[in-house]
Amino acid sequence: MIQAEAKNINVWYGDFHALKDISMTFEPNTVTALIGPSGCGKSTFLRLFNRMNDLISNFRLEGLITVDGQNIYSKEAKIDEIRKGIGMVFQKPNPFPKSIFENVAYGLRVNGINDRKTIQETVERSLRQAALWDEVKDDLKKSAMSISGGQQQRLCIARALAVQPRLILMDEPASALDPISTAKIEELIFELKKSYTILIVTHNLQQAGRISDYTGFFYLGDMVEHDLTKKIFLNPSNERTQNYITGRFG
Amino acid sequence: MTKKRLIQRIAFITFGLISLMVVGILFAILGFIAIRGIHVVNWEFLTAMPEDGMTKGGIFPAIVGTGCLVLGSIIFAFPIGVLSGIYTNEYLKDSWLKRFIRMMTNNLAGIPSIVFGLFGMALFVNYLKFGDSIIAGSLTLGLLTLPVVIRTTEEALKSVDNTLRLGSYALGATKLQTIRRVVLPVAYPNIITGLILSIGRVSGETAPILFTVAAYFLPKLPSSLSDQVMALPYHLYVLATSGTNMEETRPMAYGTAFVLIAIVLIINTAASLLRRYLNKKVKMD
C-alpha cells in the first residue's frame, strides 16, 4: 500500500533546477527521513506535499504528487483543502500568539468547524496525542508564547494533528530545541507513527538513524538513494551516500 | 591603554556628544517656547474666544478646529491607508506593480505640503464646490497623511514573522483568514501607534489648511462640516505675522505654540505607552 507518492518530479525556481527527476513512494505508518547537505533540495521536496512551494513566485513543477491516490496538483484540487489534509511542523516553533487552546482549535475554526463540543474534544485528543496534555491541561487559556520552546513545538504538532492529516511533514522539527526537548519530540514521532505517515527533513544523522524506517539521501537536487534506514546507514549502495553518512562531506 | 582602545573610547565619546547635542536642540526649542508661553496658558486661554484683535481672550476655537480637522482627516485616511497597506504587503507578489505602487507612495509622501494645499483648494474647494470648509480641509489633510498611513501599515505587517503565515496556510487557512486571525492580531499594536503618531503630524500642518478651511478670525464654534474653522498652526502663523498689534499678540503666539507642542507631545507619549501595553498584551493572550 502506498500513502504518498512522488513520480518523476522536476522542480525549478526560475532557471535553477532544484529537483531532478525524483520518484519516491511512502508507505503508511512509516517514518521517512530526508537527509542531505544544505541546499540539496530536501526541504523543497518536503514542501511539495502541502503545496507550500506555491507561495514562491517563480516556482515551477513537473511530475505527479499523489496523497491517498489523489493528485494534489490537479486543477480540481483546492489548495486550502489539500493543506488542511496534510500537517506540517516547522523548524522554529511557530505557535500563534493566542491561547494554547485556540492554537489547537485554529485548524478547525478556519475550516468552518464551530461546534464547541467537537472543538473541545479535538483539542484534548490532539494535545494528548502530542504528549502535551498533562503539562498544559490546567493552562489551556494561557498564551502559547508562555510555554517552553519544546512545549511550543509539541503544541505545533498538536495543532497539525487536530485536522486529522493524512500525512505529516516535519522540517527539522528539533533543530531549534535543547537535547531533552529533542528526545521528547523523537519519542513522540515514534508514537505518532502508529497512526500517521511521517516525512521528516533532518540535518541530524543520528536522529535520522534513531527515528526513521526509511531514509532518502538528497544531493544537489538528485535523490541519490532511498532505502531502509538500516541499509543506508550500514551498507549504502552509493559512494556519495557513504561519504555523507561517514561525515566526509556535508 | 592600547591604541585601538583609545580610538574606541574617542569614537564613543564623539558619538555620545553628538547624540546629546540632538537632545539638547530639542530641549532648547521646548524650553524657549515654554518659558515664553507658559505664563499665558491658563484655563481662560484654553477655553475662551479670542478678543480685541486677538490680543486678549483665548484660543478655544482654534483648539476645537484642529480637533475637527484631525478627526475628519483620520476618518478619511485610516481606512483607505490601512486597507491599501494590507493589499500591497499581503496580496501583491513581488512584481513591477508592487515596486511601482511603493515608489508612488514614497513620492506622495515627498510632495511639499503646500502643494497638497493648492491641490485641495482646486479639487475640494473649487471643483467639488465644498468651499472653505472642514470637509475640504479634512480631505486635504487626509491625502497628506495617506502615504504615512500606508507605510506604517506595511512596516507593521512586514515585521510579523512569516513563519506564522506559513503555519496558518499549512492548516488550510485562506489568505484572508490568515490576515484576519493571525497577521492583524500581531501587527495591530504597531499599526495603531503609527496612526496615532500621524495624528501628531496632521495637527501641526499649516499649508494644507491655508486655502481649504482655516479662518483668520472666527470667534465661534463650527456647526456643520461646511463651516470654516480656526486651527492652531494657522492661528499661530497669524498671531506671529499679521496681527494688528504685534507687541500685544506676541505672548499669545508663544502660548499657542506651547499648546500645539504640548498636544503633539501628549499624543506621541500616549502612542508609545499604548504600543508597549498592546505589544505586551499580544504576547500574553
Question: What do these coordinates show?
Answer:
The complex is a heterodimer of chains A (250) and B (285). Chain A contains 10 helices and 10 strands. Chain A has 2 domains: 1-85 and 165-250, Rossmann fold, CATH 3.40.50; 94-164, no CATH class. In chain A, strand 7 (167-171), helix 7 and strand 8 form a beta-alpha-beta unit. Chain A is 36% helix and 25% strand. In chain A, the strands form 2 sheets. A 6-stranded mixed beta sheet of chain A has the order 6-7-8-3-9-10, with helices on both faces. Chain A has a 4-stranded antiparallel beta sheet with strand order 2-1-4-5, covered by helices on one side. Chain A has 250 residues and is α/β, with parallel strands linked by helices. Chain A has helices at 42-48, 79-84, 100-110, 116-129, 133-136, 149-161, 179-192, 205-211, 229-234, 239-245; strands at residues 4-13, 16-26, 31-35, 59-67, 70-71, 86-89, 167-171, 198-201, 214-219, 222-228. Chain B has 285 residues and is an all-alpha fold. Chain B has one domain (55-284): MetI-like (MetI-like fold, Orthogonal Bundle), CATH 1.10.3720.10. Chain B has a two-stranded antiparallel ribbon. Chain B starts with a helix and ends with a helix. Chain A binds chain B through residues 50, 52, 55, 57, 80-81, 83-88, 90, 92, 94-99, 106-107, 109-111, 143, 145-146, 156, 159-160, 163, and chain B through 93-95, 161, 163-164, 166-174, 177, 181-182, 185-186, 282-285.
